């Protein structure tokens, strides 16, 4: 399957795999990115992607499993996990949720999540358990991975190390 500019579905899946590798590296360093989105993924000439914009990233201290953000400041509402929306808790698991949304963006050839809804409507939909619909060209197996990333319970979401081999 091919789309604009000769980018194939296979190439897009490779981008997702490369991004999961970068996030696995951050996870190992106990760094929470907090802004995983297609707008922060750069594509080099050789079809190698790089994760950018570490302005919201936080290094977790020894023994910490999550970071609680203070109120205020701009946050990427439509990419955020339920626990981040409700309690401003960010962790590797919330980055996994965001990765699922970013994967959805990539495999939908750049559509924006919840693009026809307000932030409040998106928050309400996520709270009701609604998830982004499967992109038209997305294989069922990859959509299942997205749904795993979007589990309500952060403890039930896969780690980046378990996601990587599924994206090869």
From TrEMBL:
One of its GO terms (molecular function) is transmembrane receptor protein tyrosine kinase activity. GO terms for cellular component: plasma membrane; receptor complex. Keywords: ATP-binding, Kinase, Nucleotide-binding, Phosphoprotein, Transferase, Tyrosine-protein kinase. Residues 1-167 form the Protein kinase domain. Pfam families: PK_Tyr_Ser-Thr. The keyword Transferase applies. InterPro entries: Kinase-like_dom_sf, Prot_kinase_dom, RTK, Ser-Thr/Tyr_kinase_cat_dom, Tyr_kinase_AS, Tyr_kinase_cat_dom. One of its GO terms (biological process) is cell surface receptor protein tyrosine kinase signaling pathway. It comes from the Eukaryota. This is Protein kinase domain-containing protein. It comes from Taenia asiatica.
């Amino acid at each position: 399957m091919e789309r604009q500019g000769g980018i194939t579905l296979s190439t897009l899946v490779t981008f997702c795999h490369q991004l999961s590798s970068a996030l696995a590296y951050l996870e190992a360093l106990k760094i929470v990115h907090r802004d995983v989105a297609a707008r922060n993924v750069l594509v080099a000439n050789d079809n190698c992607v790089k994760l950018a914009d570490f302005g919201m990233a936080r290094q977790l201290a020894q023994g910490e499993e999550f970071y609680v953000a203070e109120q205020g400041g701009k946050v990427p509402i439509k990419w955020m996990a339920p626990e981040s929306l409700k309690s401003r808790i960010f962790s590797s698991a919330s980055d996994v949720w965001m990765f699922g949304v970013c994967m959805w963006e990539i495999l939908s050839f750049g559509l924006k999540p919840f693009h026809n809804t307000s932030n409040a409507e998106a928050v309400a939909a996520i709270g009701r358990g609604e998830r982004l619909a499967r992109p038209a060209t997305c294989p069922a197996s990859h959509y299942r991975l997205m749904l795993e990333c979007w589990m309500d319970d952060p403890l039930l979401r896969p780690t980046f190390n378990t996601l990587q081999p599924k994206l090869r």
